[in-house]
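debug: dumping io for the single-chain case to check the tokenizer round-trip. Nothing else runs in this session.
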Amino acid sequence: MLILDAARSAFLELGLDGASLREIAKRAGYTPGAIYSYFSSREDIYAALLGESLERLKQCVDGAAAGDGSPVPDTPVAASAVLRARALAFFIFYRDNPQDMDLGFYLFNGARPRGLTPELNQQLNGQLLATLRPMQEMLAALGLPAVEAEAETTAIFAHAVGLLMLNNTGRIRLFQQDALALFEHYLDALQTRLVARN
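debug: decoded output
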């Protein structure tokens, strides 16, 4: 859709605050009034873009498998391999599509989201959690209680996002490290710990 393509380029170039509806309309070849027949606000356009990005991410994570690819691996080693594949799919999606990660942080000022209605915020957060759920399911398959599986999923997410921020901003060079290698090292340690529990 022309509006979403125009909005993506405007958000990437100007940021959310600088990308007015007028600018998005101009890039799409519409009048600002015509955009209102599709979207009620700039934040609705942003939510549509982020929602589409999260859907592509979910497809990558859902499609990641290891071993025989069965939906519920029957051994701890197989379950930990699927967990690893899904975590790497999440990481690699954002490493290879840094603009999608940027999109996810446009509406944050410090640690507080802004600009979205509570309903849109809840919907987008639900989509993000859905991309992480396949990892949480593998942790549960490895015998972790629900609370532990959720905490470990949060840790995977935090490691991935932190390393991706360093990678995508170029700050990883300060440490002379490779973000993917560091994430794989973290996953190796996690796999070893999880398999040893079983």
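debug: round-trip ok. The chain has a mean pLDDT of 88.
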